[in-house]
Design brief:
The complex is a heterodimer of chains A (625) and B (325). Chain A has 20 helices and 23 strands. Chain A is α/β, with parallel strands linked by helices. An eight-stranded mixed sheet of chain A has the order 7-6-5-2-4-3-16-9, with helices on both faces. Chain A has a seven-stranded mixed sheet with strand order 11-10-12-13-15-14-21, sandwiched between helices. Chain A is globular. Chain B has a single domain, classed as Thiamin diphosphate (ThDP)-binding fold, Pyr/PP domains (Rossmann fold), CATH 3.40.50. Helices cover 34% and strands 17% of the residues of chain B. Chain B is built from twelve helices and twelve strands. The chains are: A alpha/beta (625), B alpha/beta (325). Chains A and B meet through α1, β9, α8, α9 and α10 of A and β1, β2, α3, α5 and α12 of B.
């Protein structure tokens, strides 16, 4: 145990061990600044040219009790030499501000066996004997379990520089991490200036002093050091999370009306959009409820300004009737569902891909709509531009699926270069040609030109009732079928514009893994690991789920076995009463089986956490044909 | 001075609209249904105000009332049950250049859409809202509605309804930001028109409850009110409704009421017999939500680009040599 506390004495200058990737966590009680420390670390590494993937660790409560196992708040940062596409496996190194939040992470099995722990030591001598005893007990237990525990007197060191160490410890921790990962201290100082830019120069100066102190302490006291070689980026990149990317994408798409109701984990997109619209012009309307938000967006879209409504599971359920109305009246609408755990209130802050089938089949009756899923943080940005364009071209509802994983993960991607083609043309106010009809469905594509209020000669009443080409309520059975046909054909017409999805890895082999949404990075990393071992594994990631792009069956036919990997529930074949007559497959597996009559297997994990590439690699190895 | 070309344009736009320019199809309401009177009043309003049919939108929910847009030769949006108000709000926010009307019923507004009703009053967007209140569900064949009088026998309350009726006037007058509340009855078309017109001219959400007959399901309910003019109390004021000599001859039960007086308005609103008819409350100074929200900034692609670039700058990690110049 004494050895584990080696950090107390001075050590000789150490040589840096070279790594290709590492996962580091900073955790504290909420309000102690671990979030900012983690985000700054990610930004500094990104500026050095490292691949970075940052995930927020969020307690479910706003102010959980201090020093509680469930209260861990902070960041998990995966650093790499090349691009980092997911949060990776268990954590290699953790900085913890108290032993209880650390215990929370250990119990969640988030730490790698033998992980390095930098633990605030102030609790050892705490006046409350219960706290001191708890600290010593946890410390000794973790050390005995093989973790490399280094006690760090963060509080004591910070108190030498500031009176309230609670507010500065995060920068001390950042300094230590800069030393540990051989990051450029000058870049770190710049990052602090950037992060605290709005505040007084004295605030920046204090934080830089704390940063320097943390760096110096680590240089003097720690007996290890790493270097993760970076490939210097040659182009500008932006570092944002999926929700920020969504909000930026909304602006880039030219949409300027967003109607929403607060719901986790979608709301932060609207927070940021609200702020941005104040500068750029545009409206985030916080409606009285999810139904009103959807109806408001439909009203704005109907009037010629395609609008977006952003929500998550429970809100998405509430919007179903409105979505059906937009489908029936053929009003363009973009609906974003940042999925969380379900059903019902489920797990508001956790990631799940449970809403695919409800997105495709949701709303009563036959309600065809486009369903697409962002696979990366970058996709969150571009999907908004694509979605608006599809919605307005085909007069359809476009559902864009993200999830809590993408919503809260930060990673760099090339800075978008704006194109005027992204935004909508001005609202058409030209007179409608004599004799033109509001639903003049094309017999081949089902498409009809929409008349927008303000267009002379185009007056008609849209309705959620079955209607004919003049938008008159239809009681005729043939007209009902004709309109159903037209709305369905539009999906097929859109499908013909899609390209077959690319295959990651060889175009043929033993096992094809098919995924959708935020699992892309994890699946490809796992596939890469297996390929490096010589296995004939490839993957295919779908961005359009409804309609499915062409060519999928051909790709699947070139593999001995096909399986999906998803984070939604699928019955486990090993369960006693589960057999082929009652097994419920995961959402995408069900779709692929139904559409292509191919025997698609599935593996799912629904733990509220992103799947780890190491876990998936083990699963795939076991499932090789 | 105008050029010949602008003269031509002025003439082009000076085209006069007649009543039939606002009429579409033959209403399928029952004979004697109050909805017919409301339709006649709004069509006359459109004609008198010379509203451009293409710049006028009638939004409705579901129910007998909500069929009205189908009979207007303007733009119309026959939406879903209870959601006429939020749809109309979206239309209004997107297009301040349009005249937006809402037709809703007592089930649509006061029951399934009640949440939207309260909040629409609070938003105070420039919408003219007509509550077609026949005190019963008509299209679904006689169920008690929130405004049905207590004891009403209906298909869901065969022994009589159990609860006191909800009073839409007192509810609206209890909501912060309410800016225009009036009540009309379908059987005095002249007064109905005057109220509809005053509602249209109010900037903000004007809420007009129209007490209307349902000859199919409640043929007797309002009979006493039709036969006894004293059971209608006309509200008049220099800042409210002026009563014509013809109407004054028949309807002698009148009361002077200043629509600026909220306390008095609430008192009047709570009376159900006689039925108060007129403008109960008007406050032209309540700001409209769309005026508070719309920046007036023209969103050209260039402005979007500038705004986006400024935002992207906040998140950009430049290659170490710094931004390209």
């Amino acid at each position: 145990m004494q050895a584990a506390r080696a950090a107390r004495g001075s050590v000789a200058p150490r040589a840096a061990t070279t790594l290709t990737q590492h996962v580091v966590e900073i955790i504290s009680d909420s309000g102690e600044g671990a979030q900012r420390c983690g985000q700054s670390l990610g930004a500094i590494a990104a500026r050095m040219g490292n691949g970075v993937w940052t995930v927020e660790i969020i307690p479910a409560e706003i102010r959980p009790p201090a020093r509680s196992v469930a209260g861990a708040s902070g960041n998990r940062i995966r650093l790499g030499t090349g691009p980092v596409t997911n949060g990776g496996d268990e954590t290699d190194l953790v900085v913890a501000f108290n032993e209880q939040v650390l215990l929370g992470r250990v119990r969640a099995r988030e730490l790698k066996a033998g992980a390095t722990i930098l633990l605030e030591s102030m609790w050892r001598d705490h006046p409350d004997p219960a706290i001191a005893a708890s600290y010593i007990e946890v410390h000794d237990r973790l050390a005995a379990a093989g973790y490399r525990v280094h006690e760090v007197p963060m509080e004591r060191e910070c108190r030498k520089l500031v009176s309230d160490a609670r507010r500065g410890k995060n920068m001390f921790a950042l300094g230590m991490l800069c030393s540990i990962y051989s990051l450029d201290l000058e870049l770190a100082r710049e990052q602090i200036a950037l992060a605290f830019g709005k505040k007084a120069a004295s605030v920046v100066a204090t934080n830089v002093t704390l940063l320097d102190a943390g760096f110096a302490w680590a240089e003097e006291h720690l007996d290890f050091k790493y270097r993760i070689p970076a490939v210097q980026a040659t182009e500008a990149q932006i570092v944002v999370n999926g929700n920020t990317a969504l909000a930026l994408g909304v602006v880039a798409s030219g949409m300027d009306i967003c109607a929403m109701y607060p719901i986790t984990p979608a709301t932060s997109a609207s927070h940021y959009l609200s702020e941005m619209f104040e500068n750029v012009g545009g409206i985030v309307h916080q409606a009285e409820d999810e139904i009103a938000a959807c109806a408001f967006a439909i009203g704005a879209s109907y009037a010629g300004r395609c609008a977006v409504t952003i929500t998550s599971g429970p809100g998405y359920s509430l919007k179903q009737e409105g979505i059906g109305l937009a489908v029936m009246a053929e009003i363009p609408l973009v609906v974003v569902n940042v999925q969380r755990g379900g059903p019902s209130t489920g797990q508001p802050t956790k990631a799940e891909q449970g809403d695919l089938l409800t997105s495709i089949f949701g709303s009563h009756g036959d309600a065809p709509k486009v369903v697409m899923a962002a696979a990366t943080v970058e996709d969150c940005f571009y999907s908004m531009i694509t979605a608006r364009k599809i919605a307005e071209t085909f007069n359809m509802v476009v559902i864009v699926l993200s999830d809590a994983n993408l919503a809260t993960s930060q990673t760099p991607f090339p800075r978008p270069i704006f194109s005027e083609a992204w935004v909508a043309p001005p609202i058409d106010q030209n007179p409608v040609p004599a004799g033109a009809r509001p639903y003049d469905w094309d017999p081949v594509t089902g498409l009809a030109r929409r008349f927008v209020p303000g267009q002379p000669g185009g007056m008609h009443t849209v309705t959620g009732l079955a209607h004919d080409r003049d938008s008159h309520v239809a009681y005729d059975p043939d007209i009902n079928e004709e309109s159903l046909r037209a709305r369905s054909l539009k999906l097929a017409a859109f499908q013909t514009t899609l390209r077959p999805p690319p295959v990651f890895g060889d175009a043929e082999g033993d096992l094809l893994v098919v995924g959708w949404g935020s699992t892309k990075g994890t699946i490809e990393e796992a596939v890469e690991r297996l390929r490096a071992e010589g296995h004939k594994v490839s993957s295919m990631h779908l961005r359009f789920l409804q309609p499915l792009p062409p060519g999928i069956k051909d790709v699947m036919a070139r593999f001995t076995k096909v399986m999906t990997v998803e984070t939604n529930w699928a019955d486990r074949p090993e369960d006693e009463i589960i057999d082929e007559t009652n097994r419920r497959y995961s959402a995408l597996a069900m779709l692929l089986r139904a559409r292509y009559l191919v025997n698609v297997d599935c593996w799912t994990e629904v733990k509220g956490q992103p799947i780890k590439p190491g876990t998936l690699a083990r699963v795939l190895r076991a499932r090789l044909p | 001075m105008t050029t010949a070309a602008t003269e031509c344009l002025l003439q082009l736009y000076d085209e006069r609209h007649e009543l039939e320019d606002y009429q579409s199809g033959v209403p399928r309401w029952c004979t004697g249904c109050g909805d017919n009177a409301i339709l006649a009043a709004v069509q006359r309003l459109c004609r008198d105000e010379q509203l451009k049919p293409e710049k006028t939108v009638f939004v409705s929910g579901i129910g007998c009332s909500s069929r009205l847009p189908h009979y207007m030769k303007t733009y119309g949006f026959h939406g879903i049950h209870g959601r006429a108000l939020p749809i109309a709000e979206g239309v209004r926010m997107a297009r301040p250049d349009l005249h937006v009307f809402v037709n809703t019923g007592d089930g649509d507004c006061c029951s399934i859409g009640a949440a939207h009703w309260i909040h629409a009053l609070r938003y105070n967007m420039n919408l003219t809202v007509f509550l077609h209140d026949n005190q019963v569900y008509g299209l679904t064949k006689k169920q008690a509605s929130p405004t049905s009088p207590k004891g009403l026998k209906s298909n869901t309350t065969p022994r009589g309804s159990y609860l006191e009726a909800l009073n839409p006037l007192t509810v609206t007058l209890g909501v912060q930001n309410v800016s225009f509340v009036a009540q009309a009855v379908d059987w005095i078309p002249e007064v109905l028109y005057d109220i509809v017109s005053a509602a249209f001219h109010h900037k903000g959400l004007s809420f007009v409850r129209i007490v209307q007959r349902c000859p199919e399901w409640l043929p007797q309910l309002l009979e006493p009110f039709l036969h006894d003019p004293m059971k209608v109390k006309l509200l008049h004021h220099d800042d409210g409704l002026a009563i014509s000599p013809g109407i004054a001859k028949v309807y002698k039960n009148t009361q002077r009421h200043d629509p600026a007086d909220m306390n008095r308005a609430r008192e009047i609103a709570s009376g159900v017999d006689p039925i108060p008819v007129g403008i109960l409350y008007r406050n032209p100074d309540v700001p409209c939500y769309e005026d508070l929200r719309v920046t007036g900034q023209l969103r050209t692609p260039d402005l979007i680009r500038q705004g986006l670039e400024a935002e992207l700058d906040k998140f950009t990690v430049w290659p170490q040599e710094g931004p390209a110049t």
